[in-house]
Design brief:
Blueprint lengths: L6 H13 L14 H4 L4 H5 L18 E5 L5 H10 L4 E6 L2 H14 L4 E5 L12 E7 L8 H11 E13 L7 H4 L2 H5 L8 H10 L3 E11 L1 H5 L6 H10 L9 E9 L27 E3 L3 E7 L7 H11 L5 E6 L2 H13 L3 E8 L2 E7 L6
Helix pairs in contact: 9-13
Length: 370
């Protein structure tokens, strides 16, 4: 099976960016109140790299089992451990062993024995089904190349009736110039790869969660990016040069969303990241000429794990430079990832239109027409 967005490549970008950090100076700590930060280790505060404060809205009663997806140095892990008390248990999950080591050290310094840090991927959470009462995450899901899979995993480990609280960057990629979207630092800094708000809400419902509600929004602009060392000086210069000045204060929106897993006795259907019916072998891509300038690729109901990315890469490579192409799709995971894939490959998105359950994306392939 081929990943639509080449997960290994994206993960390596994220690893390299985070490992290059030396002294972040806690850009994410400003989202928390003084009472929350009181008595936390300086290592947890100084390495706070989140984009908001999910703890302001998370449902974490005493005795709860909690999972923090992408825990970093552990600021939200420690705040959750404080909330659930000694009878509760908090698991921090992170891809990077270096971050896990920082979180363990901070938990020891804070004196929390109810904390466990594990290394793993958000797309394959190393926990059984129905393992936790709550899932929290702060500025991490957008780093995944397979966001639907990551959200499905969050839903899978939630027990019936359990709660999710997610804070993350949302944006409309059409509002960012290709010079920004294609910059290597843009993905690890959350300026590329993030979902649009409607797509995020649909995805949460798609994985079976209910009572989905946006609790908080705040703008995220170029100068906000400058506080985070993941945004390199080079990328910031590109952003300031290519994004109109009047749009620079709000290039994205950070949202905090809550949702819950339906209770055990609720009427439920089998929940999967994409319907099994949609994962059956699909016919070859449809390729048609339209007025000798437009080529069309129909992904139909194929999900992102059905080799759509491999087929699209090969198809775009087969058409002449500067060709206007149209890609249509119905699966939510494919809708979320195809625009990012096109931009990552250097193509230009000219239009995106959704009619009913079908998204139609017009893509001009890179290069000058021959």
């Amino acid at each position: 099976m081929t990943d639509l967005m080449h997960k290994a490549e994206i993960q390596q970008l994220v690893r390299d960016a985070y490992r290059a950090l030396e002294s972040p100076r806690g850009p994410g700590a400003g989202y928390y109140g003084a009472d929350q930060l009181a008595d936390l280790p300086s290592g947890a505060v100084g390495w706070a790299l989140g984009v908001g404060n999910p703890m302001a809205h998370a449902v974490l009663p005493p005795g709860s089992r909690v999972l923090d997806v992408g825990c970093g140095a552990g600021i939200d892990v420690l705040l959750a451990a404080r909330r659930v008390g000694p009878d509760g248990h908090v698991i921090g999950l992170d891809l990077l062993p270096e971050m896990g080591a920082r979180a363990r050290a901070n938990a020891r310094e804070a004196g929390y024995a109810n904390v466990e840090i594990v290394e793993g991927e958000m797309e394959a959470i190393p926990l059984p089904d129905d393992a936790v009462d709550a899932v929290i995450s702060n500025g991490v899901i957008n780093l995944s190349a397979r966001k639907m899979r990551a959200l499905f995993e969050c839903a899978r480990v939630l027990r019936p009736g359990g709660h999710l609280c997610l804070t993350d960057v949302t944006l409309d990629e059409r509002n960012l110039p290709p010079e920004v979207l294609l910059h290597p630092a843009a993905w690890s800094g959350c300026a590329a790869g993030a979902m649009a708000e409607p797509a995020l809400l649909r995805a949460l419902g798609r994985v079976g969660l209910v009572d989905i509600e946006i609790r908080e929004r705040h703008p995220f602009g170029v100068e906000d990016c400058a506080r985070f060392p993941l945004f390199t000086t080079e990328l910031l210069d590109v952003m300031r040069a290519t994004i109109p000045v009047h749009r620079q204060p709000t290039i994205a929106t950070v949202v905090t969303v809550t949702a819950r897993q339906p209770p055990q006795d609720a009427a439920r259907t089998e929940v999967v990241a994409s319907s099994p019916v949609r994962n059956i072998p699909a016919p070859a891509p449809v390729l048609t000429d339209m007025e000798n300038t437009i080529r069309e690729f129909s992904a139909g109901d194929r999900a992102c794990g059905d080799d759509v990315g491999r087929d699209l890469r090969a198809w775009w490579a087969s058409v002449p430079p500067g060709t206007r192409t149209v890609v249509t799709m119905r699966d939510p995971s494919t809708k979320a990832d195809v625009p990012s894939l096109a931009r990552m490959l250097g193509h230009n998105i000219e239009d995106m239109t959704e009619t009913g359950d079908t998204l139609r994306v017009t893509v001009r392939t890179k290069g000058d027409p021959t």
